Amino acid sequence: MTIFGPDFPFSYDEWLNHPAGIGTLPEEALGKEVAVIGGGIAGLVAAYELMRLGLRPVVYEAERLGGRLRSEKFRLTTDTTDNDDAAYSEVIAELGGMRFPVSSTSFYHYLRLLGLRTEPFPNPLTPAAGSTVIDLGGETWYAESLADLPALFAEVAEAWDAALEREFGLSGLQDAIRERDAHRLKSLWNQIVADWDERSFYEFVAQADEFNGLSYRHREVFGQVGFGTGGWDSDFANSMLEILRVVVTECDSDQELVVGGVEQLPQGLWHREVDDSAYWPKGTSLASLHDPSPGTLSPVDHDGEPGQSRRGTPRGAVAALHRGEDGRIAVTESTGDVRTYDAVLATCQSWLLTTEIDCAESLFSQDMWMALDRTRYMQSSKTFVMVDRPFWKDRDPKTGQETMSMTLTDRLTRGTYLFDNGPDKPGVICLTYSWMSDALKMLPYPADKRAELAINALEKIYPEVDIRSHIIAEPVTVSWESDPYFLGAFKGALPGHYRYNHRMYGHFMQQDMPAEERGIFLAGDSISFTPAWAEGAVQTALNSVWGILNHFGGTSHPKNPGPGELYPELGPVELPA
After folding, report:
1. pLDDT computed for residue 299 by the predictor
2. Could you give the CA distance from residue 546 to residue 143 in angstroms, rounded to a whole number?
């Protein structure tokens, strides 16, 4: 299936792959600088495409390229004789995005561009996981398929599927996506938006006839075990529209991991040389545009003097955004350096425009500020360990079961995932992946304490398994909400937030805005209708590319209209104020 809506059913993959290209700039705009704030996937996709169009992206990044696509290496603690062996050095922990639905066709466009490989992600009850253990209320079940679990679990799954079909006509929505019937999809979805904007995920589950005929225990199990990727009770407060988008676009199923780590994608876009730019010579890359070495295409200050010496690295953290008397937007770096631009793209977390960045209020309308500040972020915590080998695949001679499994539980760990790099090669255990209040339980503790708490919980499920004896590296952990440049893992819209999302998502359409609000664009997870999935960040980045192209007087090819040309026809329905 292709991601094709449902809020804006525009075929981004077709637009990207069309032989006519995504647009053309007037000659006088070629080489002009555009500030890109944030070096995550949205910022780097946008910067890469802007470079191809012939503009000069100037990327600002406060920490490290990749944003929440972060692949972290381990520090070995054991005295192995082959510490430098690739078998150890290439093992990583995915601290941010780690599973990517194959329906995310724009995201996969860039994976293919860089030649990156993917493999099935070991989600519960999938062949990639091998086996799954569900541990709830002190009871433990081992399964290699849904059929191995008690009837209660099948009843929950059947109730969920039936409720979605009856209330939303799920199969009809998905048929429209598969057939790329944008107008039918939009017609069906628009009515759902009007009916469900102010209703929560839990309200749907609690009031659906299919669940009402079952016990409270069924709803409780649904919250703990969920569908596709695991338990979903952390999302019960979210808008049902947000959950429905995940299901309609099959984001919750058929997911892959990136072999070697997904951070290769943003890093690859940073270093990838282009040979099809309308302006830059063959071999130009984003890195080379940020390299002030002699003989390179280095950025220069506006008085013609060379910029700071950074040898292929982005500029630093942004401290302020203001519009100058000449109408250009001034970007002040944390060092005090000030540069001005005709266009600025902000891909950072939306709250940063009122916390880390002194952003002039006049750059956005008060309605837009309301939307940016009301955006709600979800907490997330992960803790990983490297182990000597995938010992969990060992079979118990008495039961024939695997020693350890992908685990869903109501205990502290919530979700535990096992990553196998091959027989007798070091593997990785994501000891715990939790959200919201479960993630906050881990927030005060360092990595060692988090790992100890997680292992203690897992030992209650696997009393015969000595996990500690297999650990060969220091634990790696993350709590995105504790980082001042992220303040959370991803957006999670509450009931009634659709209007806010509508304002932010459509902000790239600036033709009717007052002049003082034009020229600054938004992209990223904060802006997407499908937060928590990299595809949403990529799509909003591509919207901003079209907006910036239009801002500089550029046009799309008549045979390949972009998101801006089709937005008046296919854009998200606007609800009354």
Report:
1. 37
2. 48
